Amino acid sequence: MGFEKIFDGCKKKEVVKSHGFGGGFYFLGFLGALIYYISTSTSFWDGLFGFFKALLWPAALIYQLLVFLGA
């Protein structure tokens, strides 16, 4: 029994094509929110807090949308 028979099933490759279309919108939204929060901050800690708010804005948006829809 050679290695070819043992690893014969490992030679098959499956190609999965995926387009990262939503990632570009998230990145643009992140940049816009980051610029807004940092430009309106009055101290270093406000700017740092703004950075984290810019990372999490999609979660707040979806939450408010679900509250508005009553889901």
Report on this model:
This protein has 71 residues and is mostly helical. It has a domain at 40-71. Helix content is 69%, strand content 0%. The chain is built from 3 helices and no strands. Helix 2 packs across helix 3. The chain is extended. The N and C termini lie far apart (60 Å).
Q: What structural class should be given to the helix and strand makeup?
A: mainly alpha
What average pLDDT do the residues reach? 82
Distance between the termini: 60 Å
Helix proportion of residues, in percent?
55-70%
Rg from C-alpha positions? 23 Å
Beta strands, count: 0
pLDDT < 50 stretches: none
Instruction: State the shape.
Output: extended
In this structure, how is the largest beta sheet organized?
none
Q: H/E order of the elements?
A: HHH
